[in-house]
Design goal:
With 268 residues, this protein is α/β, with parallel strands linked by helices. It is 29% helix and 15% strand. The strands form 3 sheets. It has a 5-stranded parallel beta sheet. Helix 9 links the parallel strand 11 and strand 12. It starts with 6 loop residues before the first strand and ends in a 9-residue tail after the last helix. The model has no long low-confidence stretch (mean pLDDT 96).
């Protein structure tokens, strides 16, 4: 299969349907999947790609669990994954981040997800698809993962930027967790500012996003660590930055749920 871009439009994705070695993953709600989905798509419950237990519900599952999941999905080293969801691609972006963690780099995110697909007249199916298990042969790559010790170690670094993508109310301490506020020195960017509500929940246009990030002082030469409450919203920002050509990006999987629960960690 030809090299395919990271972010692709529904029309490009439609041309890949039915091709050999293409695995389509739908991270939308089960009821949405039952009503409409891409032909050949496998519906995956989001809970399967997160730790799910307090105080780190958004943490990365252990390697054996990930291996079992991707074996069950039928992922192989030759697989090109098409992924989307029904909520603006937050969950789909978390799946992309997980693929980066397991060392699988053949994937594309469908811009706008099922909203863009269905609203723009692309064919939908109601036929449920069962995965065909295979050996995923994971090679773990923890470079995109930041844990709380790592984040704490770079708080005063001028080579790192911590990006809080929660709402301003959460960032400023008006709400959000047992202790309220944000990780010291974190820059605020509301992840929703990268979602184009007037264009079927696609990413906002590149030039607009680049201006926003430039105004915030985001530098491609510095490492950017994204976080929210459970690394769901911040996975979307991770994907946006990846699309825009930022290469030094990490996601703090524990995010604010873990940070604010640890009384030994500082907050602002």
């Amino acid at each position: 299969m030809q090299n395919t871009s990271f972010l692709i439009e529904p029309s490009e994705a439609e041309a890949l349907l039915g091709q050999e070695h293409v695995l389509i993953i739908d991270l939308g709600k089960a009821e949405t999947y039952q009503q409409e989905h891409l032909a050949g798509a496998i519906n995956l419950n989001y809970e399967h790609i997160i730790h799910g237990l307090l105080p780190v519900p958004g943490g990365l599952p252990k390697t054996p669990r990930l291996r079992s999941l991707f074996d069950a999905l039928g992922l192989t080293p030759d697989t090109h994954v098409l992924v989307y969801d029904d909520e603006g691609n937050g969950k789909a972006s978390r799946f992309i981040w997980t693929l980066d963690i397991i060392g699988h780099t053949h994937y594309s995110l469908i811009n706008g997800g099922i909203h863009a697909w269905a609203n723009e007249g692309h064919p939908v199916s109601t036929e449920a698809v069962r995965p065909q298990p295979a050996s995923s042969s994971l090679t773990m790559n923890y470079a995109p993962l930041a844990d709380k010790d790592y984040v704490h170690s770079v708080l005063d670094s001028d080579k790192h930027i911590i990006l809080d993508v929660r709402s301003y109310e959460e960032y400023s301490g008006m709400r959000g967790g047992m202790r309220k506020g944000h990780i010291p020195g974190a820059i605020h960017f509301n992840w929703l500012d990268a979602v184009d509500r007037n264009n079927n929940l696609r990413f906002v246009k590149d030039d607009i996003l680049l201006k926003k990030f430039d105004a915030l002082g985001l530098d491609k030469n510095k490492e950017i660590i994204t976080y929210c409450y459970t690394h769901h919203r911040s996975a979307h920002t991770y994907a946006v930055l990846k699309h825009l050509g930022f290469t030094k990006i990490k996601g703090y999987a524990g995010s604010w749920s873990e940070w604010n629960a640890d009384q030994n960690l500082p907050i602002e």
